[in-house]
Amino acid sequence: MSVRVEAVPCLSDNYLWLLKDGPTGAVAVCDPGEAAPAIAAVEEAGGRLDLILLTHHHGDHVAGVAELKARFPAARVVGAAMDAHRLPKLDQSVAEGDSVAFGAARAGVLHLPGHTSGHIAFHFAPDHILLCGDIVFALGCGRPLEDGGTEQLYASLRRIARLPPNTRLCCGHEYTESNARFALSIDPENKALRAEAEAAGALRAAGRPTVPTTLAQEMAANPFLRARDLEEFRARREAKNHFR
Q: Which of 9, 129, 156, 172 is the most buried (most CB within 10 A)?
C-alpha cells in the first residue's frame, strides 16, 4: 500500500480527504468544500499539492477549489467530463473506465450516479480506498436529487457491494449517528449495526471521525446496502427522507 488517506473536517458536517503517496510524496485533496481546512492540511503535509479530485458538483464539495488552485497553481483539478459545465474549471475531465495518475499510484474512475447524474468515485484499488463522495455513507446513502436517481443509486450501491470487503469507503459527510438511529428503527436486532452505532457514538464523543468505514462493515449493517431489491431500497430511502 502506497497511498494514505485522512479525513479532514470542513463546513458543518463535511469531510474533505487528504491523500499522500508514500513513494513520491505527492499530495491530493478530494472534495474541498472549504479552502481553509484544505490549505492547513496541505501545509501540514509539507506544502505541496499535486491533485484536486472532485466527485460531484455540489458547493459543499467544490467551494474551496478556486482558493486552493490560487494557492497551489500546479495542482491539477480532476472531475467528471459530463459535469464539466457545473464544476470548477477542470484540468482533466474523466469518465467511467479512465484513470488518474497520482504519484506512483493510479485511481480508477467509477461513474456512480444516483445522488447526482454525473457523480463519480475514485478507486485506489491496491490501497483499498474508494473516494465515494455522497453515494454511500456509514450506515446510509445519498439522497437521490435528479431524475431517475433512486434506480441509479440502487444500481451504484450494488456495484460498490461487489468491491473487495476491505475497501475503505471515504465518504463526504459525518452522518453516522443520525444514520444509525434510522437504521436501528428498521433493523433493531442487527448485532453488527448495534456495534457500529455504539462505536460511532464513542468516536464522536472523543471528537474523532467515524469514517472511513469498510465495505465489510456496511454490508453487515447498512440498511441500504442490505436491501433485498429495488422496491425495498426505494421504501427505505423514502422512509429515511421523512425520518426525524
A: 172
Identify the active-site residue in 111, 115, 119, 123. Answer: 115
Look up 128 and say whether it is catalytic. Answer: no
- What superfamily does domain 3-241 belong to in CATH? Ribonuclease Z/Hydroxyacylglutathione hydrolase-like (3.60.15.10)
Based on the residue annotation, tell me whether 50 is a catalytic residue of this protein.
no
- Per-residue pLDDT tens digits for 149-201: 999 999 999 999 999 999 999 999 999 999 999 999 999 999 999 999 999 99
Please write down the HEC assignment for all residues of the chain: CCEEEEEEEECCCEEEEEEEECCCCCEEEECCCCHHHHHHHHHHCCCCCCEEECCCCCHHHHCCHHHHHHHCCCCEEEEEHHHHHHCCCCCEEECCCCEEEECCEEEEEEECCCCCCCCEEEEEHHHCEEEEECCEECCEECCCCCCCHHHHHHHHHHHHHCCCCCCEEEECECCHHHHHHHHHHHCCCCHHHHHHHHHHHHHHHCCCCCCCEEHHHHHHHCCCCCCCCHHHHHHHHHHHHCCC
Domain boundaries, the chain: 3-241
Q: Is 111 a catalytic residue?
A: no
**What is the per-residue pLDDT across 15-33, written as a single tens digit (0 to 9) for each?**
999 999 999 999 999 999 9
